[in-house]
Amino acid sequence: MSLDTGRPERVSLTESINGRHHRAALNLFMIVVLAHWAEHLTQAYQIWVMGWPVPESRGVLGLAYPWLVASEWLHYGYALVMLVGLWLLRGGFVGRSRGWWMVAFGLQFWHHIEHLLLFVQAQTSTVFFGQAVPTSLLQLVIPRVELHLFYNTVVFLPMVVAMYLHLRPNQAEAARMSCSCATGLTVAAAKP
């Protein structure tokens, strides 16, 4: 409550999702991340286990909506959602978990730049680097499917470490947390 007016203080959306709604926001974010992973893993299965040609290996979503998966709008949109989600949710992380979360953010920032290059080429019908199709920088040396599996892995792993540490804070971290993600025995044991 505000001392001046007697009314509750207004909490911003960012404060809310990094405070009392942090766990729910993280869970929603992870559903999106895991659904994306499922698509990439399905595509990898289609290519390397089922022997499908890469253009026909579109994951589950691409089988139903091939035009959507072929669009750079979807790929860039997801890269942007990841970047924004990592940035917005960072405020709930403290200590060791914050460091790992920001590593994931930094890696996703670069992944986003690669998708931005692809998006710009697709939207302008101009290809870079003398290639026949839109191509990102690292795609010059690593095929697109393998590259994006790599990108998603190197972003996801520090996210997992960050979330593990976030749910199991040490005493100093637990005292600084503004959310209730680490409820129960972990926080009770960590607090003096």
Report on the architecture of this protein.
- The protein is mainly α and 192 residues long.
- The chain has one domain (13-190).
- Helix content is 66%, strand content 0%.
- It is built from 9 helices and no strands.
- Helix 6 (95-124) packs antiparallel against helix 7 (144-167).
- It is elongated.
- Mean pLDDT is 90; it is low at 185-192.
Main attributes of the structure:
single chain, about 190 residues, mainly alpha, 9 helices, elongated
Query: Ranges with pLDDT <50 over ≥5 residues?
Result: 185-192
Query: Terminal Cα separation, in Å?
Result: 27 Å
Largest sheet: none
* Helix and strand element order: HHHHHHHHH
* Assembly form of the protein: single chain
Provide the gyration radius in Å: 20 Å
- Mean pLDDT, rounded to whole units? 90
Q: What is the total tally of β strands? A: 0
Number of domains: 1
Number of helices: 9
Strand % is under 5%
Helix and strand arrangement:
Blueprint: H1 13-17, H2 22-48, H3 59-64, H4 66-70, H5 72-89, H6 95-124, H7 144-167, H8 171-176, H9 185-190
Helix pairs in contact: 2-5, 2-7, 5-6, 6-7
Transmembrane segments: 21-38, 73-95, 116-142, 148-167
Keywords: Membrane, Transmembrane, Transmembrane helix
